[in-house]
Amino acid sequence: MGIEDEQDRGRRRAGQLLFAALFVLGALVLLAYLPDQTAWKSRTRLFAQPRFWPGIGVAGMVLFGALHLRAEARRLGRRWPVRADWAEARRWGAVLEHAAWFLAYVWLVPRAGYLPATLVLAPLLAWRLGYRSRRMLSIAVLFAFCVVVLFKGLLAVKIPGGALYEYLPGAWRSFFILHF
Amino acid sequence: MDILLSALETLARWDVALALLVGSVGGVLIGAIPGVGPAVAIAILLPATFSMDPIVGLTVLLGIYGSSMYGGSIPAILINTPGTAVNALTTYDGHPMTTRGEARRAISLAYSSSFFGGVFSVICLILFAPTLARVAPMFGSREIFLAALLGIILVVTAHRRQSLIAAAMASFGIWLNTIGLEPVKYTKRYTFEQSWLSSGVNLIVVVLGLFAISQAFVLLMSEDEKVRLTRLKGSFFQGFRELARHPRLASVSAGLGVVMGMIPGVGEFTAQFMSYTYAQKTSKRPEDFGHGSSEGLIAAETSNNAVPAAAMVPLLALGIPGEALTAMMLSVFYVHNVIPGPGLFQNRMDFVVALYVALLILNVLVLVFLLFATNQLIKVVRIPNRFLGMCVLILSFVGVYSLRNSASDCALAAAFGVLGYVLKRLSLPVVPIILGMVLGGIMEVKLRAGMARVKSPLDFIDRPIAMILFLLIVLVLALHFTRVLRDHKERKAREWSISHASTSFASRLYRRRVTLSKVRARRLRAKRSPFSRPSTDGK
User: Is A162 exposed, middle or buried (0-12, 13-18, 19+ CB in 10 A)?
Assistant: First the structure.
């Protein structure tokens, strides 16, 4: 029995069937949209058609996705999701909270500015994750400050200044827009 | 010789020297932190390198790529947790050596093997570069299309037991790449009349979502673990003496790393397994493998470190990335208008050699850093998982937002982050999506260009290299289907040999009844147990 067999046995079973079914469903929806969302030009060869490569991609998704679904159903010995699959799906849903934190950060940066938004988010998220000690919260604040100084101050990555910076007095305003 | 001098001149700049230092030290640090890995770091740093000179930006990224595996061996040996995915095999023999009190020997052997693998591959490729420069111009549109097709087939078939979902993911990547305005006929594809989709889905947004944000989610959803570290005393030079006693094993492992690294879609894992199997078969003590064998450790670490330099060959010579990390680097080339492919070897050979020399210097820098800083470095494995997840999430924002300052890019990256998280939970392949996107784009352009001069399908493979590539594709597919059939037969035979239960409906009902009665009895026993917690209901 090789290493691949061990890996195969160690693969999580719950959720496999549900994911495969959702993937095929999504692929079928995209296939249904193919004539509407792509063009077919007259007097153009098949390989140069704008529809050719999206067609290859979507057809591959449907074909291989369906074969994978069939193989999973056989491997698991069932055709429909069971309670464990739905429990696994709830676990997928739980990650949306962290995605929401990320999107809130995205919303906050152009308004409050990169430095204030990061200085707020890092300790707040650390608090939410259960790090309540002063030491960990201080590390979170220090990390946030270092990230902003490194990327905006030293590497000069393109992140616009926050709307809040407009209220700063003259020289401070341009300094903050440039470096923080 | 002139090319080498010219390459050294390219590198003799303070910013390149700084990039080498940052890349090597940063790569080792990132490699040593379990759960981060080079893919996450490269994805985050990618947009920051766009404003740098191509050689500086690529040196930083190459530094992280080449040195992360050195760092990844430290937690693999000390706490049985690989720092990067490719260090998984190091745990087989590295950790048993730690448990019997030989941690320093294992780490020093891993460093020396990694150094040998890295240097061996770079020297091989510098010597091989003139030949590549002669062969690369023979690749026209048809040959590059066939090479990209071969790459995508190899990526899919390399996922043994998961080739169907890998093919579906690669197709998903091909489809993703087609979204937006089509560049020849100027028609919209899958934009659903949304203006933010007209410019297409950016590769870096997908990469950051699938690698960095999804990894942040994995860490944020995990539990913190307490790590107990072994203090290492003494020097790390003894590994070189031990490595010198196995010259054949080290050379074969490094050679396998070079060859496997050059083949798109194959990479470190295959090289490691092949060299490990070779080491076990030729060893005088094969029973020691998996229980702290020094030869096993040499095979694993030498072969994986020989891959990064070799993986640059298809990228530089043909413009075809063989795996996710080189696919990310391709975008750095495009941003700086340096088009990798046959022309690069013909016109900018000094640039190619400069990259290889940078890798050579990098290996020396990493080794020197590790020989003196290992005891301080191992402390990074103590960073709690969820705190690390918070750090990765904040860093991911810089990567996505600095691209175009677009909130929709960030939302898309978050969506891909969720998808990546689900794929990681289910142990399903992520890399085929990225390679599908990159190779799909190459195939579309090259097929259109290649078919313009072709009258019949056979004309497509009438040139020698095209014919060789076509035969390779047929061979790979034939081997894959043979293996699938053999696996299927083996699985059936195993099922028949262990399955004694009848599959009739009545037997199934009977077994179900027995299971239910067992569960009921267990529940009753728990209820009546004197140790069970007394119920407070109804009292």
Answer: buried
